[in-house]
User: What shape does this take?
Amino acid sequence: MAIVNVTERGCRCDRCGHEWIPHDINRLPKVCPKCISAYWNTPRRKQQVRGSSGSRGSSVKQPQRRTTPGRGGSFNTGARTRTPVRRQVPKRPTQREIDRAGIGGAT
Assistant: This one.
């Protein structure tokens, strides 16, 4: 028996690089079986470097917005910020402490 290279049509994920042969070659898979990305056949967009001028950023520094108390994203209630109160459970006496106190025992 000879070893030969067989080439078949398959799919390659543009996100993770995984290659596979789908069950039905006539239909495109919905997700990549390895990384479960629905955008397996769409290449990643180039990440924008911060500080460079582009459509979203500008070189002019904008003043920071101040929010008034009770409005906006900095609204915190006391219930969210306080740590929960831990109730102290009374310590159970040891057998030695019970014997020394003279309580308990056979009646």
